[in-house]
Amino acid sequence: MYTKVKPFKTILFGFAFSPSLKVNVLEATRIAYFFGAKLILLHVGEKTIEKSNGIETLLTETEHPELSVEIQWKNGNPFQVILETCKTSNIDLLILGAVQHENLFRFYVGSIARKLTRKVCCSVLLLIKPSAVRIPCKHIVVNGVDAPDTPLAIEMAFYVAKILGSQQLTIVEEILQKELHVTVEDDRSLKKANIMKERLKHREESRVRKIISELPEVMTKDVVIKMQSIFGKHGYSIGHYAEVVRADLLVMNAPIKTGLLDRIFTHDIEYILSDLPTDLLIVRN
Fold first, then answer.
1. Which residues pair with 143 in a beta bridge?
2. CA–CA separation, 179 vs 173, rounded Å?
3. According to the UniProt entry, where is the signal peptide (predicted)?
4. Given this model, what pLDDT does residue 87 score?
5. Contact partners, residue 78, CB within 8 Å, separation at least 6
6. Do 50 and 150 share a structural domain?
7. What is the CATH number of the domain that holds 42?
């Protein structure tokens, strides 16, 4: 279950000439450097001498001017252009900026970023707090729900923790309340519900421990590992937990597309996207 040495070989970051351009480019180049990846900077819009000189000058001010960076200029619909570029350029990781909602401590992702998160063929990193200087990633929270792609998400969380030198990794197992199969009406039913909760927690932790045991020891030995079972709605519960513990990064596996049902029912990931608690890495196989 061990991934290739460099799962993120080519990273794409779409940039706009906004007041946050410098800090976004500094963060994107820093991430590409840590992952040992080539970085493609894509601007959907007209190329001018002024714009070209501006981005070239900015790249000389980054922490890693030796980084392999390619600048692309394309015209068209931003969503379609980025979506197609991810395919044609064999992108492994798409970095998108998320926007703070007014002055409240709540965040939302723009409509283009939301659509790309659902449709793009690669993993996606949503940044809500890019920084001009590096802020260490100390605590990573990863989804541990019982799903086919969860082992990959957990493995990638450990990989990122290793690369970024994170000190702690918490695996959150979200358990639906309906799995209890007990209606609490009195002390007796409450005791029964608590026993059932402990059994479910033990089941989930055993499953997660098996996933961890199959990873190379070099990926796990220097990280403090915690397992946390939470009873609640998938997506909403882990987002709230990541916010409460002030995690630096939340890692989730990409939702499985189910056609019409996707448009009727809210996906687990939609709860996260509607109110981002921290930077979010969505791992897509």
1. 172
2. 13
3. none
4. 96
5. 14, 44, 112
6. no
7. 3.40.50.620
| Number of structural domains found in the chain | 2
CB 224 within 8 A of CB 168: yes
Which structural domain range is residue 89 located in?
A: 1-134
Q: Are residues 129 and 142 in the same domain?
A: no
Structure tokens at 110: 């723009």
Give the whole-angstrom CA distance, residue 252 versus residue 238.
Answer: 10
Contact 98, 107 (CB under 8 A): yes
CB 124 within 8 A of CB 222: no
For residue 215, give both structure tokens: 């990873």
- Compute CA 27 distance to the chain's CA centroid, rounded to the nearest angstrom: 15
One domain for residues 267 and 148: yes
pLDDT in tens, 84-131: 999 999 999 999 886 544 333 333 355 677 788 888 999 999 988 888
- DSSP-derived secondary structure letter, 177: G
Nearest 5 degrees, angle CA 267-CA 122-CA 172?
Answer: 50
